[in-house]
Amino acid sequence: MPVVIWPEPSDVDEQDERDGMHWKTRALVDWAAGRSFAWVDDEITGIDRAWVSAHHRGHALLHCVDPSQGLGDADYAPLNEWLHRMRGIPSSHDAA
């Protein structure tokens, strides 16, 4: 599975953070280059979601996990459903 190699922080990243956007957001969208991607993190905000929506032409799932719990069983359901939708496969939650 592909992973992102994080670039060194730039002045733009620092300004993004001051504006409330996560420093990873711009790098993820650049790395995805229009491809679908899922981002699981404990610091995703509405600002990140809005920026991705406005600047990424592919599908993206931004899934925020509880920082005190980490990635848990309940987090896998939305990831699984999103993956099935991207592949055109009915998920277990789709009506028969």
Fold and architecture overview:
The structure is a single chain. By secondary structure, the protein is mainly α. The protein has one domain (17-87). It has four helices and two strands, in the order ααβαβα. A two-stranded parallel sheet has the order 1-2. Strand 1 (37-41), helix 3 and strand 2 form a beta-alpha-beta unit. The longest helix is centred in the C-terminal third of the chain and has 15 residues, at 73-87. The mean pLDDT is 90.
Helix/strand layout:
Elements: H1 11-18, H2 23-32, E1 37-41, H3 46-55, E2 60-64, H4 73-87
Parallel strand pairs: 1-2
Largest sheet: 2 strands, parallel
Number of domains: 1
Principal-axis shape? globular
Structural class: mainly alpha
Helix-strand string: HHEHEH
Number of helices: 4
The radius of gyration over CA amounts to: 15 Å
Task: Characterize this entry briefly.
This protein is mostly helical and 96 residues long.
List descriptors.
2 strands, mainly alpha, globular, 4 helices, 10% strand, 96 residues
